[in-house]
Fold:
Amino acid sequence: VLQTAFLWAGAHFFGLVGALAGQAAALALAYVPTVFLARKHGAWDPLHDVVIGTLALFTAAGALWLSQDAVMALVSGIGP
Structure:
């Protein structure tokens, strides 16, 4: 429900970029209850979350840096 709501709201107000940001925001918000449930069942590994989260951030930053012209064209509404 959270992903669908944020995807729709992001797309409605900000287009494709908003839809993508809405998905990211929904995942960030869903992380807290996920950790709570994982800890309750003894399945949470914080080191894994830190390592994978850091790798994901560096990968996303690298992808944005490598395709910054296309991303800026998308944000500004101009086709690539």
